[in-house]
């Protein structure tokens, strides 16, 4: 599953019993094209996990409200008891394999668009071919294909 997600709560860092770091992100994914009476698209809430040293490195760069383009794998539902009456509930969860930042977080906590990628470096201008038959003028007018 790939798409544009928004982080809905603060990132949680946990560790397995072996010490492997895991961060869990609560995310919202808007889908479809039909808006409701308030103008909102339908939204699916999903929990995604990042494992290993990548989790530790990304933790400080992921904040509530930030938009990300993600690829989730191993997407499945998990059951859990509700807080109030303990009735069974389900949630959608997955593993985050690929991640690209859409927004950048500024030092004061405000967000802005991610900077555009740097333009490709320009190649130096090639010198003009010499006029003494070095161009295409001396080629046959018949092209063999």
Task: Report on this structure.
The protein is mainly β. It is built from one helix and eight strands; from the N terminus they run ββββαββββ. The protein has one helix spanning 53-58, and strands at residues 2-7, 12-15, 21-30, 43-51, 67-81, 88-101, 103-105, 111-113. Strands 1-3-4-6-5 form a five-stranded mixed β-barrel. β7 and β8 (111-113) form a beta hairpin. It is extended. It starts with a strand and ends in a 32-residue tail after the last strand. The mean pLDDT is 81.
Strand order, largest beta sheet: 1-3-4-6-5
Overall average residue pLDDT: 81
Q: What share of residues is helical?
A: under 10%
Supply the helix-strand structural class: mainly beta
* Main sheet characteristics: 5 strands, mixed, barrel
Query: What is the N-to-C succession of helices and strands?
Result: EEEEHEEEE
Structural topology:
Blueprint: E1 2-7, E2 12-15, E3 21-30, E4 43-51, H1 53-58, E5 67-81, E6 88-101, E7 103-105, E8 111-113
Parallel strand pairs: 4-6
Antiparallel strand pairs: 1-3, 1-5, 2-3, 3-4, 5-6, 7-8
Notable traits:
145 residues; mainly beta; five-stranded mixed barrel; two-stranded antiparallel sheet; 1 helix
Give a short overview.
This protein has 145 residues and is mainly beta. The chain is built from 1 helix and 8 strands; from the N terminus they run ββββαββββ.
């Amino acid at each position: 599953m790939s798409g544009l997600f928004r982080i809905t709560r603060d990132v949680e860092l946990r560790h397995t019993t072996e010490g492997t770091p895991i961060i869990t992100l609560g995310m919202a994914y808007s889908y479809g094209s039909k808006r409701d009476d308030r103008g909102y698209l339908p939204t699916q809430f999903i929990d995604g996990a990042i494992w290993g040293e990548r989790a530790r490195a990304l933790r400080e760069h992921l904040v509530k409200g930030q938009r990300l383009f993600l690829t989730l794998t191993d997407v499945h539902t998990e059951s859990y008891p509700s807080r109030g009456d303990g009735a069974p509930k389900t949630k959608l969860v997955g593993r985050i394999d690929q991640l690209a930042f859409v927004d950048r977080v500024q030092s004061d906590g405000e967000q802005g668009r991610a900077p555009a990628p740097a333009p490709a470096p320009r190649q130096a201008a090639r010198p003009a071919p010499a006029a003494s038959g070095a161009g295409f003028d001396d080629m046959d007018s018949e092209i063999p294909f």
